[in-house]
Structures are given as C-alpha cells and as structure tokens.
C-alpha cells in the first residue's frame, strides 16, 4: 500500500492514539514503515461489518420495544424477578453501537488524513466480542421470540422510505474516504474490486424504492377512519391492570372496549386476573405464603378480597409512566382490590363501555362450569348483551344458545368453508398483512389486532384500515389525530429521484476532488523522493 501524505501533528496524534493505542509524532521519518497493509484493510472491513451488524440490532431493539412488556412478564414467571429489561437492552445496545461507531469514524478520518490504519489488538478482541454478543442476541430472538421477525417486516412499511434515504446518505459520505484510499493505493486489483462493490451497492440502493411498499403511501382522501382503541387490561400504564381504576382510566382515554381476562374462584365467583398465579399482581406471598404458588382458581372469593392488587404497581413500576402519576392516583392505586366480573360489568354498563374477555384456564377440568357461571353473571348484570364480546372458543355453541345477543370474537382467520359468517376477529398484529386487513374491511369483518403500543405501528395499521387495536398505551394513541406520516405516491417518487440524483452528484464530486488533491501531492512527493535519493547517494560515497 502507498504511504499517503499525512496531516498535521495534532490531528495525527488525536486520531492514532485511540485507534492504534500508539503515540506517534507527525514527523514522517518516525512513521516510515507504518503503512496500511492488506491485513489492516481486512480488519477495517471487519470493523465496518460489525458496525452494520450492531446497527441492524439497534433497529431490532427499537422495534421490539412495542412488545417488551410481554418479555418482562415472561422473565417474572420464570425467575420471579421483576425488572424493566428494556432499559438493559437499550443501554447495552447503545454501548455496542457507540463503540463500533467511534472506531469506524476514527478509521475514516485516519484514511482521509493519510494515516496508517493500525488497529490495536485490544480493539480487535472487543470487536470480536461485540460481534459474538450481537449474534447471540439475534439467535436468542429467533429461538424464544420468533414472531418479532414478523414485527421487523411490518416495521419496514413504516421506516422503509426513511431507511432508504439514510442508507443513501451514509453510502454517499463513504465516497470521500473510499476515493482517498483508491487514489493512494498501489494495488490495481483492489481498486477495481472496491469500485465494483461500491457501485453495485449504490445501484441497489438507488433502485431500492421499487421494492418498498407501505400502506401509508396514499392520498389523504384515501385514509381510512382512525381505529378504535381497546384497553388491554384497562389502561395498564396509568393504573394497576385488571382493576376498576384501570377501567376508569381507560374510559378517560376514550377507549371503546375494555379487554380483560376472567377466572373463576373456588366458590364460583368470576373475577378479573390474567396470570394463573397471583404472585405478579397481588401480595399473595405476604398474605398466604404457603399457598402463593397455587392456581388463582384454588382461592375462594373471601381469600381473594384480602389481597392488595395495587401496591405492586407502585413498587415495581411496570411502565415508566408510573413515575408521573399524581399523588391522588397513587393513593387510589394502592387501594385497589381484585374486582369480580360482576363489578366490572356494572362499571362498564355505567360508562357505556363494551367488555371483551378470555375465560381462563381453558384446560381446566371444570371449564364448562366456568362458562355457565360466567354467563349467569353476565345475564344477571343487566348489561346490554351487544356490549359483551366473547373470546373463548370452548363451549361457544352453548353460549350462543344461552345468550344469543352476545357478540362472538374469533381468535383465528376465517375459513374457506365457514358454516356461518364471522363478524369479528381478534389476532396478534403480526398475523395479518395489510392486504388481508383491506380484504376483511371490504367484507365488513371487524379486525382487532393486539398488542399495539408504538405510534409507528398504530400508523401502519391505521393506513391499512384495521377496525381497532388492543393497546397498553391508550393515553398515547388517543392523542394521535393523524398517522405519523402519509405521502402521496407522486410525492414519494419525487423525493426518491431527488435524493438519488443529489447523491450521485456528490459522489462524482468527491472522486473528482480527491483525484485533483492526489495529483497536486504527486509532484511534491516526487521532488522529495529525488532529493532523498541524492542525499543517500552522497552519504554512501
């Protein structure tokens, strides 16, 4: 490799010290022999790949934040330890991406200044560890949380146009150090290879919008109505989940449906509870320590009423929003008890709120009795049956006979030979494409997707035409009056062409400018080399 001219002493020292861990003066004779070899280039390429790898993981980390509360609950069920693991994820990811980014910027600056890319062995070890950690994270994601790959694919509908612009911008800036390297390297094969790879990458980026699709690329007049909000266990960011306070907070968020989970006590009282055990959302370990591990259905109603269903919310802070609660809300949350289904139905009736629930656990030996008891409470409550949305599949035909006014919601897609038409479906947001949502909407089938917390995801589903979404963040989605972005196809096409043309011109300018700079330096270098040769000859004589 050639030894290109260096920059000033201060710049050389500031760049080389953190990258190479060497104190090198600016005098060229003391740097003689320190050149960027093919071995150094291979480590720079590895650094660039690690940076891209961690960048992709950062993107995934941001995307999976929508579903991270489920991960926190999973860890609690397995380890009985509550922690907001999203903070750990983001901090660790920020450290990895910051480290690889700083090294990459240093390397690019060194190349522009004509300094050798001598990466220190400590950085090499740390880069390998970074790659292994990120690879382990992706592997764990694929094994334990495979549905997040579908979430990433959906996210591209929201971020694709902007990722394209960012990628074009990043690769355009890369033209400067690339041009500097090409004009100073002596290997013709390496120059040709790098140019071919770079040109292929830029052509692929320039044409990428041909494969980018998003439901939000549409005219304003084509935008479907805003999806209705379904409160997931109420408003769990503002109050303890599955409590009457959570129901009231959901009403304040203009939620149209209160989604909850119902279990039946040992003495036949249906009550609101999601987990099969009571340990996460009550103080059962303090009140009944010897029975804490039992199924929720093993407790009678009298026992359940002794439990505190609100203090855990203030102590564990399952969502960051808990910190911003008012003193009055904190006091009310601390007083929450486990509500019965009858109490929840009465509150829903007074607020003109629909209620949708699962009856758990479905594998219980006495499940048919659970269905009958639950139906009895519904019929006795006096709530209009059209406000009750029935989710459980077990003994659905019996429910239709005993309470014909209840609306039935199915947790599956419609079948080709459906005996009777399906009017409502309730599915994970990963399980329906934008095309399927549009088709169901045309066929007058109400589609509710869960759990949708992030505005970007809500925007994509809004543009797709979904009927409603189940959410933990009703207070956030309530304030959205419009999708985050909406672009007519003609506007997006214009942005695409302008960005690509501007990028192309900058790349041409970078290569032309670096070529002129290299030509200016060559005469000076030639004169210096001749002078050094003459001096060396005289000394030998």
TrEMBL record:
Residues 227-481 form the GP-PDE domain. It is found in: Membrane. It holds the Pfam family GDPD. The chain crosses the membrane at residues 41-65, 85-113, 125-143, 163-183, 195-212, 493-513. Keywords: Glycoprotein, Hydrolase, Membrane, Transmembrane, Transmembrane helix. SUPFAM superfamilies: PLC-like phosphodiesterases. It comes from the Eukaryota. It is a multi-pass membrane protein. Its main location: membrane. One of its GO terms (molecular function) is glycerophosphodiester phosphodiesterase activity. GO terms for cellular component: plasma membrane. GO terms for biological process: lipid metabolic process. InterPro entries: GP_PDE_dom, PLC-like_Pdiesterase_TIM-brl. PANTHER family: GLYCEROPHOSPHOINOSITOL INOSITOLPHOSPHODIESTERASE GDPD2, GLYCEROPHOSPHORYL DIESTER PHOSPHODIESTERASE. Belongs to the glycerophosphoryl diester phosphodiesterase family. This is GDPD2 inositolphosphodiesterase. It comes from Catharus fuscescens (Veery). The gene is Gdpd2.
């Amino acid at each position: 490799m050639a030894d290109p001219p260096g920059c000033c002493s201060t710049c050389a020292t500031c760049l080389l010290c953190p990258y190479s861990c060497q104190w090198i003066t600016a005098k060229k004779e003391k740097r003689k022999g320190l050149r960027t070899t093919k071995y150094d280039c291979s480590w720079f390429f590895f650094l660039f790949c690690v940076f891209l790898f961690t960048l992709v993981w950062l993107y995934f980390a941001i995307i999976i934040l929508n579903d991270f509360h489920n991960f926190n609950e999973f860890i609690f069920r397995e380890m009985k330890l509550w922690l907001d693991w999203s903070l750990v994820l983001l901090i660790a990811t920020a450290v990895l991406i910051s480290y690889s980014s700083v090294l990459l910027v240093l390397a690019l600056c060194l190349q522009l200044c004509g300094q050798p890319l001598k990466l220190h062995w400590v950085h090499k070890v740390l880069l390998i560890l970074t790659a292994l950690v990120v690879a382990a994270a992706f592997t764990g994601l694929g094994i334990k949380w495979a549905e997040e790959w579908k979430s990433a694919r959906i996210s591209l509908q929201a971020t694709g146009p902007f990722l394209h612009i960012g990628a074009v911008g990043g690769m355009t800036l890369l033209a400067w150090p690339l041009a500097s390297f090409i004009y100073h390297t002596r290997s013709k094969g390496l120059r040709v290879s790098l140019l071919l790879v770079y040109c292929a990458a830029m052509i692929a980026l320039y044409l990428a919008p041909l494969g980018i699709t998003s439901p939000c690329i549409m005219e304003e007049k084509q935008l479907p109505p805003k999806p209705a909000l379904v409160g997931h266990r109420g408003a769990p960011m503002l109050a303890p989940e599955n409590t009457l306070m959570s129901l009231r907070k959901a009403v304040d968020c203009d939620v149209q449906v209160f989604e909850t989970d119902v279990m039946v006590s040992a003495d036949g009282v249906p009550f609101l509870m999601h987990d099969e055990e009571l340990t996460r959302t009550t103080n059962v370990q303090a009140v009944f320590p010897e029975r804490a591990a039992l199924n929720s259905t093993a407790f009678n109603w009298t026992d359940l009423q002794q439990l505190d269903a609100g203090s855990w919310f203030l102590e564990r802070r399952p969502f960051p929003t808990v910190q911003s609660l008012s003193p009055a809300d904190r006091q009310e949350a601390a007083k929450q008890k486990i509500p019965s289904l009858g109490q929840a139905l009465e509150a829903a009736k007074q607020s003109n709120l629909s209620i949708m629930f699962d009856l758990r656990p479905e594998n219980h030996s006495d499940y048919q009795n659970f269905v009958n008891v639950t139906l009895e409470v519904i019929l006795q409550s006096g709530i209009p049956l059209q406000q009750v949305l029935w989710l459980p599949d077990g003994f659905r035909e019996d429910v239709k006979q005993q309470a014909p006014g209840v609306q039935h919601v199915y947790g599956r897609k419609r079948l080709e030979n459906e005996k009777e038409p399906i009017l409502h479906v309730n599915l994970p947001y990963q399980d329906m494409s934008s095309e399927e949502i549009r088709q169901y909407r045309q066929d007058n089938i109400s589609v509710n997707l869960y759990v949708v917390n992030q505005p970007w995801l809500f925007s994509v589903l809004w543009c797709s035409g979904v009927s409603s979404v189940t959410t933990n963040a009703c207070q956030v989605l309530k304030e959205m009056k419009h999708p985050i972005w909406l672009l007519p196809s003609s506007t997006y096409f214009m942005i695409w062409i302008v960005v690509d043309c501007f990028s192309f011109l900058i790349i041409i300018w970078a290569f032309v400018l670096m070529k002129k700079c290299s030509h200016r330096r060559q005469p000076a270098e030639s004169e210096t080399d001749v002078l050094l040769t003459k001096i060396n000859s005289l000394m030998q004589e």
